[in-house]
Every structure is written in C-alpha cells, then in structure tokens.
C-alpha cells in the first residue's frame, strides 16, 4: 500500500498519531511539506502571512525534520505551490492509496482537508494531535463552547477531562517513494535567531531546560510578566506553533514535575497557559471565519477604523508611548514580544490610536516567530472587545503598565535607541 504523509503544523516524529497511522498501513510512502507562495504576498491588511523570522525558523524546523526522517531511511520532499494542486498531482503520479494528515483548527487548514476528502480518489485519514484534548472529549460547537476562558477551565476541571497521553514515535517508517524536491530555503539569512532554533530536538531541549535544568518553571508565576531576556518565560510557543513540539508532551512533562516536586503556583500558572492556548484552538474550531471578522465572534463592531499614520507609528515604534515603542522595536528586531507586551501594544492600537484591530493582528502574524492563528486572533479579539472577554474592551493605562512591569525603565531604555524598522541584527 502506498501512502502520502502531508506535514503541516506537526513537524515532528514523536507524538504524531497521523504518522503512526500511515506507518502501520503502508509499505511505501511520500513525506511531503508544501511551501505556498501565497504566504509571502501581502494581504488586504498590508502584511504577509510569513515574515522573515518565522520563515527562517520554519526552514530550520524542516531541516531538523529531514534529519530525523533520514535516520529512519525516509526523506522529506519539499514542494513549492498551492497544496491543493500539489497533493493531488503527487497522488495521481504515484498512485497513492492513503493520504494521512493532522487536523488543525485553522479555517484554511480545515478547508484544505475537506477539499482533499471530497476530490481525491484515495482514502484521506485525519488524526488529532495539535490540541491537548480530542474532539470526542469536548464535543463543542459554537452554541456549546463556553463563552469565557474561566467557564472553559471550570468545565474541564468539573468533568475531570485529562489531556491525551502522548504516543511514541513509530518504530519504523515505510520505504520512501522517489520524488523530485523543489528548491527551498536556499537564501542566506544574515541574522541569527538564537537562542531560538527550529526543530523537534531543539524544542525538547528547551522544554527540558526550562522545566528541569534551569528551574525556570519554579519561578514562572513571579517572572511570567517580564519583557526581556530568555528565562522569564518558557519560550515554548514557537515550537508548539509549528508542531515541532506537541502540547501533550508539554502537559505530560508538567505532570511529571508535579509528581516529583508537588504542585505549585508556578506549575498551575503554566498549565493555565496551556489551557488558554487550548481554549483559543477550540474557539477557532467552533467559530471559524468569525475569528477574522471586524465584529469578532460577538458581532460587535468596535469604534475604530484604519488611520495609516497612526498604524505606521505603531508598527515602527514611533508613537508617543515609550513602553509601546520599546515593545514594537523588540518585535521588529527579534520576532518576539512578551505576552504582557502584546496586550499593551494591542490596547494602544485599538484604544489610543483607534485603529482596526485586524491590522495589528495581521502585523503580528507576519512578525511573530511563534505565530499561532487561533491564539493570535483570539487574543486580539479579546483586547478589542469583540471576543471572549466578559468585561468587554480591555483598555490598559499605559503609564501604569510601564511603572508596574518596567519600574526602573530598563526595558524602555534598552530599546529606545534601537532601529524603528525591521533589523538584521543578531538576537
């Protein structure tokens, strides 16, 4: 039996049920990743889907995946084009019997799988591993999904719903089917993403470092609102976003920490962050395209519009608010911004500058090394008052935020003289 595995947001070997399913049924297989040229074209909101930081992180992750596949006598075939053209062409050319893919809550990702299931003459098998829980465990739709995170969390706790246990990597993979690779990732990047490095091994190392080696997890409750540095947060979001790391592996490791050292405020805070990620995934799953709508899932149109001069000042970090400028310049030069920083700059764009939140969300999509479609758009709707926040629009006092989280002005001072535009400086 011939199979085709389509890697998307699951760039790993471990805890990959779709890969295990294919390996058990096929004796020959293609392992494919498709780079869509549309990712690099500006959208209606003036930003691209894939900016330079995440592009390099993606290429690093693909190279790491290729190395892991080679160890198992397989190879990664990277193609460039529309996946809904590329995948059917490969299936026809190689007479594929089974296409295996991991489910993802993204609107386009689900549409793509639905199209393949309708049009391909072969079987399309869909497995779940991007979320902590299975659809059968939660069984939410847009009418039954809890309207707030607090209610979602209480539902999980009340029913004692446990995250799925991660599964091992397959013992062996089917023999490879020979197929030409397209050129990919050949350009020279003259900046360094370190300490970030894409790939399954790098994600596992960071998990081990933060949970065990450096004891970062021990103080997470106290440090998580930091702005700068590497250790104040787990920094796992980038690997979780492209699937180099499974959220179920993170949850299992967290459970292991609590088993050995006991539960603490910091371990509870870390699990709460995993649950926030989970909640946004199910929001995307249930509400679909409404996650991108101006009025959000509430159908509540905010009193904002598009002011080009306000947006440009925000984007380049040249507003009248030093804390916002520091955060935006950090983002433009590193591809990262802390969770606290993201809330502050989002509140500023919507409230102080009166700009349509979707332009901010699109810019984050382009710039963030850890962009996750559900978490990004869910958080922006939350701040704009059109999402899952029971209090309505969140309006931060920027001066108070700066005094509370950057009391000595170190963060603002560090980034005050940084270039306002995207930089090629080493992180």
Model description:
It is globular and about 65 Å long. By secondary structure, it is α/β, with parallel strands linked by helices. It starts with a strand and ends in an 11-residue tail after the last helix. It folds into three domains: about 1-130, HUPs (Rossmann fold, 3-Layer(aba) Sandwich), CATH 3.40.50.620; about 200-285, Serine Threonine Protein Phosphatase 5, Tetratricopeptide repeat (Alpha Horseshoe); about 295-415, DNA Cyclobutane Dipyrimidine Photolyase, subunit A, domain 3. The protein contains 18 helices and six strands. About 50% of the residues lie in helices and about 5% in strands. The chain has helices at about 15-25, 50-70, 85-95, 105-120, 135-140, 150-160, 200-215, 220-225, 235-240, 245-260, 265-285, 310-315, 320-335, 340-350, 355-365, 375-385, 400-405, 410-415; strands at about 1-5, 30-35, 75-80, 100, 125, 175. Strands 1, 2, 3, 4, 5 and 6 form a six-stranded parallel β-sheet that branches.
* Count of structural domains: 3
CATH architecture of the largest domain: 3-Layer(aba) Sandwich
- What is the CATH superfamily label of the largest domain? HUPs
Q: How many helices?
A: 18
Our estimate of the beta-strand percent is 5-15%
Write the topology of this structure.
Layout lengths: L1 E6 L9 H9 L2 E8 L16 H20 L4 E5 L2 H12 L3 E5 L4 H13 L3 E5 L7 H4 L10 H10 L16 E2 L23 H14 L6 H4 L13 H6 L4 H15 L3 H23 L20 H9 L5 H13 L4 H14 L4 H11 L5 H12 L13 H8 L4 H7 L11
Parallel strand pairs: 1-2, 1-4, 2-3, 2-6, 4-5
């Amino acid at each position: 039996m011939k199979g085709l595995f389509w890697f998307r947001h699951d760039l790993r070997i471990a805890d990959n049920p779709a890969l295990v399913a294919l390996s058990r049924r096929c004796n020959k297989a293609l392992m494919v990743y498709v780079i869509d040229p549309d990712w690099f074209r500006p959208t209606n909101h003036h930003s691209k889907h894939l900016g330079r930081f995440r592009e390099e992180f993606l290429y690093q992750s693909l190279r790491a995946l290729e190395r892991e596949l080679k160890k198992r006598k397989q190879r990664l075939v990277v193609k460039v084009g529309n996946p809904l053209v590329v995948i059917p062409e490969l299936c026809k050319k190689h007479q594929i019997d089974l296409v295996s893919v991991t489910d993802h809550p993204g609107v386009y990702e689900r549409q793509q799988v639905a199209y393949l299931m309708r049009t391909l003459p072969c079987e399309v098998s869909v497995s779940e591993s991007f979320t902590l829980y299975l659809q059968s465990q939660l069984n939410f739709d847009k009418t039954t999904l809890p309207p707030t995170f607090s209610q979602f969390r209480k539902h999980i706790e009340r029913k004692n719903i446990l995250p799925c246990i991660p599964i091992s990597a397959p013992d062996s993979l089917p023999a490879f089917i020979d197929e030409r690779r397209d050129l990919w990732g050949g350009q020279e990047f003259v900046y360094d993403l370190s300490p970030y490095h894409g790939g399954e091994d790098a994600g596992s190392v960071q998990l081990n470092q933060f949970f065990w080696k450096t004891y970062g997890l021990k103080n997470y409750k106290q440090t998580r609102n930091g702005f700068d540095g590497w250790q104040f947060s787990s920094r796992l979001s980038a690997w979780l976003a492209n699937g180099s790391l499974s959220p179920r592996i993170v949850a299992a490791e967290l459970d292991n920490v609590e088993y050995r050292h006991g539960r603490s405020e910091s371990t509870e805070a870390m699990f709460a962050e995993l649950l926030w990620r989970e909640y946004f995934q199910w929001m995307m799953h249930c509400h679909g395209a409404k996650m991108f709508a101006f009025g959000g899932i509430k159908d509540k149109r905010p009193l904002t519009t598009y002011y080009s001069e306000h947006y440009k000042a925000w984007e380049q970090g040249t507003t009248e608010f030093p804390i916002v400028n520091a955060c935006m310049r950090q983002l433009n030069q590193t591809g990262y911004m802390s969770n606290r920083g993201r809330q502050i700059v989002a509140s500023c764009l919507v409230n102080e500058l009166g700009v349509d939140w979707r332009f901010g969300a699109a810019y984050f999509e382009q710039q963030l090394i850890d962009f996750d479609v559900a978490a990004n758009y869910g958080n922006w709707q939350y701040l704009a008052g059109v999402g899952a926040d029971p209090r309505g629009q969140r309006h931060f006092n920027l001066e108070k935020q700066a005094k509370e989280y950057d009391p000595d002005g170190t963060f603002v001072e560090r980034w005050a003289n940084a270039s306002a535009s995207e930089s090629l400086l080493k992180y």
